[in-house]
From TrEMBL, chains A, B:
This is Putative NBD/HSP70 family sugar kinase. InterPro entries: ATPase_NBD, ROK, ROK_cs, WH-like_DNA-bd_sf, WH_DNA-bd_sf. PROSITE patterns: ROK. GO terms for molecular function: kinase activity. Keywords: Kinase, Transferase. It holds the Pfam family ROK. Belongs to the ROK (NagC/XylR) family.
């Protein structure tokens, strides 16, 4: 065969992806049936199946001898082999690591979590994660013979660009560098790292209804405040991987100084740490989310006022973001939404005001539905979606290049 | 042939789009060469070319008889026929309509504009537009025999959802309903309508550099304030077509009442109308952008203070949006950026503060590069890109459906 051209290089991943989708939908098929279903030439189809067989994504399950009417050599039938590939999602939180493992049929075949201290370094956290993964895999009889990919969520902001400007204590960016390599060496599969809140946003968009949500804003109120965006059905990273940092949008002009250096960031009034500290500064003795829950249950007026301010700030920031992005759903995550559900109500009021000029733009606002596993689940979803994203990327770039030329032509004659 | 299956229905537009892209890149080709380049079966290729020939998107230009080595019947060669299709972009501003016409080779073959009064109704505006289009087309020898599509930009907010909550005077939404039908009936081609600021954002993203900008926020300061977003290489509409309404993000808490009903929207301090009115209220006699330009040139202190407040508000709103979206470029449009370039500088300072905690996230901030034609150009770009967008849509939906199933499985076992 001749060497693939530029065009073929772009098209190949899209064909592969559709072939896998057809097999996932219909089960085992012969090469001839696949070629017809996909409209591909026998030659092209055969190249694609050879590559997928070599990489263990497909297996030959039987022949069509038993159902075949005519004579001649029976045709092999190909299928996705669920056991032939695995996908690993790992979420490093501030105080625990969570993992999930999915197979080629997109079923979750193992999951688990392990706690550590928030002062433990990355060496300890990695050791915890490796032990957890190997224990859970062994317990479920999983051999990582065909691990296709690993997605690792870390506290944000996370980007592949070195962030020299970041203050110590905001995220765990620099220390978490290199963990993709550590995972790759340990398990022999490609690894990607991203912000765990972004992965959680994807999981919330995929997991909530009969249809995947196309436009969603997710904010998580935890030790810090992070966010993630799904826009037009895609998880958004931004130009340097920094999209979604809702915790560092100014919410209270001239407010308290944030660990990031600015004044009045959302995080200074709406993180769990900030809410507890403000309550204490106003005389309410709260040391934990459990204390907060109890204070909310008995209607503590100071605590209610602090939660009102926090919720209003969350609603203002979400309101600006929603006026900008017009999402159908806005999700507030973090355990505090269970401990103090009234916070979500206060946020809703403030969000409703911000969008009052176009009531039709008011999204559904709700607390997160997924458990602690959201980050790891979103990671797996990213791995499963990766080939489509790449195919899309190729197509989009090609189409846009020609339009850009047009606009440049226009400008030169105008 | 058997009826196309669901899978084939999804795949067909993607094949068509790639075929057109290959012909645009390489020029005339035989069906056999096309089938090989695209990896398609002869049957599939032939179905696609028949459909495109019938729709006038392709034409048969010659045969390969002159370059053919062997014997046998010469093969026909197919090509895009520039004259075989046209695309029309129309932008209705508050005081003028602008049009551009492109051909199948993505070249602009005609353009023009016509002024009307901002109190003229849609009947008058439509009549102006029709007359302009027919005059320009006739002047360039264009016959709309194969007009493939019309994109019509109107002042925002614009959505296909009826906006019962909109105050009179904000945008021209309700009155502009039905103009797509009027265009369709007049020119016999499918028409789409969208916010003209959104189209302008797309044009700015496509037209500014050697590479199309993938992540861009555009805000236009004019009689009102509107915006548009390009995220991940795609123009963003939001769940109800309302994305990008930056003019109605709260910029000054407890500020003046906006025509939309809220207090302190960006538009109340940064539209041209607002800036002139605030200057007058503070004793500076300004009635027009020309007056403003003169006052800026002689360093009028009151005017400078008003522009500082306006620029700071623009920077704050853009800062929140940029912390959320991490764009590489932020563009401020509108004639005021020429009349008062210092406004862009003031916005830059305020934007830089908002992003100071992650200096790497600071986008390039600049005044718009395109002329008055941006809206119409962006409309044409949308038409040219449409088939890719649809192909992308099909792929993405298919891939996501299977991931969603996974996440639902996970939730049921967790």
């Amino acid at each position: 065969m001749s060497k693939p051209t530029g065009v073929q290089t772009l098209i190949r991943p899209a064909h592969e992806d559709r072939l896998l989708a057809v097999l996932r939908e219909r089960g085992a098929m012969s090469r001839a049936d696949l070629a017809q279903a996909l409209g591909l030439s026998r030659t092209t189809l055969s190249e694609i199946t050879s590559s997928l067989l070599a990489r263990g994504a497909l297996s030959i399950v039987d022949t069509d001898a038993s159902v075949r009417a005519g004579s001649g050599r029976p045709a092999e039938r190909l299928a996705l082999d669920p056991a032939s590939s695995q996908y690993l999602g790992v979420d490093f939180g501030h105080r625990r690591v969570q993992i999930v493992i999915a197979d080629a049929a997109h079923e979750i075949i193992a999951s688990g979590s392990h706690h550590y201290s928030d002062i433990d370094g990355w060496d300890t956290r990695l050791a915890c994660a490796f032990e957890l993964i190997e224990r859970e895999a062994a317990g479920s009889g999983i051999h990582f013979g065909a691990l296709q990919g690993i997605a690792i969520g870390v506290p944000g902001p996370y980007t592949t660009v070195p962030l020299v400007s970041l203050r110590e204590g905001w995220g765990n960016h620099e220390p978490s560098r290199g963990i993709d390599k550590a995972f790759k060496e340990r398990f022999g599969a490609p690894a990607i790292v991203d912000n765990n809140t972004r992965f959680a946003a994807l999981a919330e968009a995929l997991g909530t209804a009969s249809e995947a949500v196309q436009d969603l804003i997710y904010v998580r109120l935890s030790d810090g405040v992070g966010g993630g965006l799904v826009i037009g059905g895609r998880l958004i990273g931004g130009s340097a991987g920094l999209a979604g940092e809702l915790g560092h949008v100014t919410a209270v002009p001239e407010g308290d100084r944030c660990r990031c250096g600015k004044l009045g960031c959302l995080e200074t009034v709406a993180s769990v740490t900030a809410i507890l500290a403000i309550c204490r500064a106003r005389g309410a003795r709260l040391d934990s989310l459990e204390d907060l829950r109890a204070a909310v249950d008995r209607g503590h007026p100071t605590v209610d006022a602090v939660l009102h301010e926090a919720g209003a700030a969350v609603g203002r920031v979400l309101g600006s973001a929603a006026m900008t992005l017009n999402p159908s759903i806005v999700v507030i995550g973090g355990e505090i939404t269970q401990a103090a559900p009234v916070l979500v109500e206060y946020a809703r009021r403030s969000l409703r005001y911000e969008l009052s000029s176009v009531a039709e733009a008011m999204p559904v606002l709700r607390a997160a539905e997924l458990t602690d596993m959201a980050g790891a689940l979103g990671g797996v979803a990213t791995l499963l979606n990766r080939s489509s994203l790449l195919a899309d990327y190729g197509t989009a770039v090609h189409a846009k290049a020609s339009i850009r030329t047009t606009i440049q032509t226009i400008r030169s004659i105008s």
